[in-house]
Design brief:
Blueprint lengths: L4 H14 L5 H13 L3 H6 L7 H15 L4 H5 L1 E4 L2 E4 L12 H10 L7 E5 L5 H9 L4 E6 L2 H13 L6 E5 L10 E6 L14 H4 L15 H7 L2 H4 E10 L5 H10 L3 E2 L3 E2 L5 E7 L3
Parallel strand pairs: 3-4, 3-6, 4-5, 6-7
Antiparallel strand pairs: 1-2, 7-10, 8-10, 9-10
Helix pairs in contact: 1-2, 1-4, 2-4, 6-7
Length: 283
């Protein structure tokens, strides 16, 4: 009996379920689309379309990678974030839905038409900074990362979305040597305590770059480095917003307030976890 789109999708879903993948239905469909060269509409409107042996083999190759818990973004080479698609690979952290909260804060902070200057520390794939610049076409931004490989991905994403002329992407050690002032500073720094990384889901522990995960013994080391620089980098009245890990919001707020900055109630993610610490420098 020959395989069809729906039978291949069903078999892939069952295998991903058995492998412990969190979103087996969606991931199976994405792998089917990529491997068989079909679209979502094809699967929905013509589910019993026969697939060739070559298509089956291509899906199988991708499926084996996902069964090994390689992130779906690495397999497909792209990940959706905010309203855009970004190239991703093993050199960058795959952007996550909760990180979109940083873009939401940016939209609330930066009025349309304002030529703001934005800094993204630990820019990675560029997803945060480039999403903000796409929404605010009069703004410019600087993205800093300690990884040249990550910056290559960010530069490719900036070019892909026509934002290279407004995004300066540079190698650096957090804010060291960066010249302000900025109207908004954003960061999703590494915040996993070093000793906790091995116990994370395989997609993260095995496949994501450790440089983008390891926040030191208590997960707060990058925040200490960054907060010390904020008073000189923020313009008077300017804002900042940082993603934080579970249970870290209060400590990160304290670090900001120790530098004379004010903070607001942390923004909750969909799981009810305080996920973004935001605030301002006094006007």
């Amino acid at each position: 009996m020959s395989e069809t789109l729906v039978s291949l999708w069903t078999a892939a879903r069952r295998r991903l379920e058995a492998a412990g993948v969190d979103s087996p239905v969606i991931d199976a469909r994405l792998l089917l689309e990529a491997g068989a060269g079909v679209g979502r509409v094809d699967i929905v409107t013509d589910p019993r379309r026969p697939v060739s042996a070559d298509q089956v083999a291509a899906v199988e190759a991708l499926l084996r990678r996902r069964e090994a818990r390689e992130p779906i973004g690495h397999i497909l080479g792209r990940k959706g974030f905010w309203t855009m698609d970004f190239a991703v690979n093993a050199d960058v952290l795959s952007p996550r839905p909760e990180t979109e909260l940083l873009v939401e804060v940016a939209m609330e902070t930066l009025p349309k038409g304002w030529p703001a200057r934005v800094l993204d520390l630990g820019v990675g794939s560029g997803a945060i900074l480039l999403s903000v610049l796409a929404e605010r076409p009069h703004s410019t931004g600087v993205g800093v990362d300690a990884s040249e490989a990550a910056l290559a991905v960010a530069r490719a994403n900036a070019a892909r979305h026509g934002l290279s002329d407004r995004a300066t992407l540079q190698l650096g050690d957090w804010a060291e040597g960066i010249e302000g002032p900025f109207d908004l500073i954003l960061s999703n720094p590494p915040y996993i305590p070093s000793g906790d990384i091995a116990g994370l889901d395989p997609e993260v522990a095995k496949w994501e770059p450790r440089l983008a995960l390891d926040g030191g013994p208590d997960g707060l080391e990058p925040y200490r480095r960054i907060m010390a620089e904020l008073p000189r980098l923020l313009a008077p009245g300017a804002a900042f917003a940082f993603e934080v890990g579970r249970g870290q919001a209060e400590a990160v707020q304290a670090l900001a307030e120790a530098q004379g900055l004010t903070t607001t109630t942390p923004r909750m993610d969909l799981a009810g976890i305080p996920r973004v610490v935001a605030g301002r420098r006094a006007a």
